[in-house]
Design brief:
By secondary structure, this protein is an all-beta fold. The protein is built from no helices and 2 strands. It has a two-stranded antiparallel ribbon with strand order 1-2. Strand 1 and strand 2 form a beta hairpin. The radius of gyration is 18 Å and the shape is flat.
């Protein structure tokens, strides 16, 4: 199964600019855990230890 991907940005005035044209991509079967973002460490997300 393929899906279509198009990357664009919208500025504050609502104008749209295409960064990458539309292409077909094939989703990966499994996700590599090492490429995941680390947990947030901001003061709202991190609770002090009890």
């Amino acid at each position: 199964m393929t899906m279509t991907l198009k990357v664009y940005e919208v500025d504050r005035q609502g104008l749209t600019r295409v960064l990458r044209p539309e292409v077909e991509v094939v989703p990966v079967e499994t996700v590599d855990e090492t490429s995941a973002f680390p947990d947030c460490e901001c003061s709202q997300c991190v609770r002090p230890p009890k």
